[in-house]
Here is the input.
Amino acid sequence: MPKKYSKRYRKGLELVDAKNHYPLKNAVEVLAKFPKAKFNETVEVAFRLGVDPKQSDQMVRGTVPLPHGSGKTVKVLVFAKNGAAADAARAAGAEFVGYEEMIKKCVEGWTDFDIAIATPESMVEVRKLGKVLGPRGLMPNPKTGTVTDDTAKAVKEVKAGRVEFKLDKSGNVHVPVGKASFTPAQLAENARAVIEAVAKARPSSVKGSYLQSCTLSATMSPPVRIDLREFVATV
Here is the structure.
């Protein structure tokens, strides 16, 4: 075993059969037995998909509400020109709301927020921030519900734990499903919602195996392989 692994990680490896694919319920139970870090680790599911990320018609992207939230405090920026949309966003709990002044801050490199929401009207100028927000995954997009006139609804949804998933350049998708402090049942329900959402997002142009592999892991833990047969059979 490589010396680069920490003592905690090596103990975790002893508790999991790396060759085995666990039903989701069992995978979460294995994860719960791993030695804990000194901070509240993020738990995520990672997918290897049978798609070609270079093909635009094979992009996999979407959002999914987590039944038990993400466990993360989400800072929201809302770009809104008119007063009603701005007021609704503030009332819903958005930390940052504005238009020209917020665009100016972003142009100058400010990105101290987790999600950006914009009204369709404000996108005329906000779309010019593509080079700043795009690489960081912060660009508002109608497909993920972050370009909308109903700013209050959008803010409440992301605050409640709606997470976004998106294919990376290597054909992988990583999605947070909660914190290590969650109960196994909460993590299992959140993970199930994400797996089902990614499964249903299969592009129609994809042939052959789509969900090739899926693992569950915490920030500092080994991965636990998930048996996907129950999900493949339902989509």
